[in-house]
Amino acid sequence: MTPVHFSFTSAFILGLMGLAFHRTHLLSALLCLEGMMLSLFIALSLWALQMEATGYSVAPMLLLAFSACEASAGLALLVATARTHGTDHLQSLNLLQC
Fold this sequence. Notes:
mainly alpha, Helix Hairpins, 74% helix, 0% strand
């Protein structure tokens, strides 16, 4: 495994571990998701550059578009949660009360 692959893999794993183990605020969960998507985007972009084919260059842009949609939906949920519950703590959210 090259150092470049190791760095992107470790960045993705750190984001996944932060998402799994540090679940106190909704904003921290969204930041972990964005870190994971950023590492995937850079790894996919470097993979498309290494393959030197024009057909593979669409995949990173598609991933970036989905990442932007995910970020906007997450921020909308964060604002809605902060308005209704007054906080972004994940412990205050209960799916049974919705």
